[in-house]
Amino acid sequence: MAPHQPTKSSKEKYTFIPPTYNERNNLPIITWFFGKTFTKHKLDWGLIIVDDASPDSTQEVSNQRITPNRADRIVLEPRAGKLSLRTAYVYGLLFAMANFVVIMDSDLAHHDTKYYDIVTGTRYAGNGGVYGWDFKRKLVSDGANLLASVVL
C-alpha cells in the first residue's frame, strides 16, 4: 500500500492514528471530533485507522467514514488479526507522512482538551487512574512504566 499523503501543500501536516479493535460505536465519534478540530483550525490533516480484524464490523464503519470528500484524508490500514496496541501504533506510523503525528486509542477514554497546544495523558498523575483492570493488567502496566523509566 502507498503511504498516506496529506492533500494540502502546507508546511505543517498532521496525521491522527486511532488503532481500533471492536470500536464500531466509538469510531464515528472520534473521527468526527478530530476532523472537526483539524478543519476548524485550517490544518492539513489525515487519519490512518489501523484495525486488527475487529469482529464487530469496525472495518465496515471505517469504510463508511471514507466518503468521497474525505477519501484523501481518511484511510483504513487493516491488519490480519488482533495484535497489540503498541504494534498498531508502529504500523500506523509506517504510513504517516506528516510533521506531527497524534496517536491515541479510540476507546474514548481520553478527555478532549480545548485550551492546550500539547497534551499528554497519563494514568499516574493528578487524579488519573485505572478502572476495571485486573491485577495482571495493572502489573503489566506498572512493569512497562518501570522499564521505560529505567531505560529512557
Verbal overview:
It is a single chain. By secondary structure, this protein is of the alpha/beta class. The protein has two domains: 110 residues, Spore Coat Polysaccharide Biosynthesis Protein SpsA, Chain A; 28 residues. The protein is built from four helices and five strands; from the N terminus they run E-E-H-E-H-E-H-E-H. Strands 1, 2, 3, 4 and 5 form a five-stranded parallel β-sheet that branches. Strand 3, helix 2 and strand 4 form a beta-alpha-beta unit. The protein is globular. About 5% of the residues have low confidence.
List keywords for this structure.
152 residues; 16% strand; single chain; globular; dolichyl-phosphate beta-D-mannosyltransferase activity; 4 helices; alpha/beta; 5 strands; Spore Coat Polysaccharide Biosynthesis Protein SpsA, Chain A
Secondary structure layout:
Elements: E1 13-17, E2 19-20, H1 27-40, E3 44-51, H2 58-65, E4 74-78, H3 85-95, E5 100-103, H4 135-151
Parallel strand pairs: 1-3, 1-5, 2-3, 3-4
Give a brief rundown of this model.
The chain has 152 residues and is of the alpha/beta class.
The biggest sheet amounts to:
5 strands, parallel
Beta-strand content estimate:
15-25%
What is the count of DSSP helices, taking H or I runs of 4+ residues? 4
Write down the overall geometry.
globular
Average pLDDT: 77
What name does the CATH topology of the largest domain carry? Answer: Spore Coat Polysaccharide Biosynthesis Protein SpsA, Chain A
Number of strands: 5
CATH architectural category of the largest domain: Alpha-Beta Complex
CATH superfamily of the largest domain: Spore Coat Polysaccharide Biosynthesis Protein SpsA, Chain A
Structure class: alpha/beta
* CATH class call of the largest domain: Alpha Beta
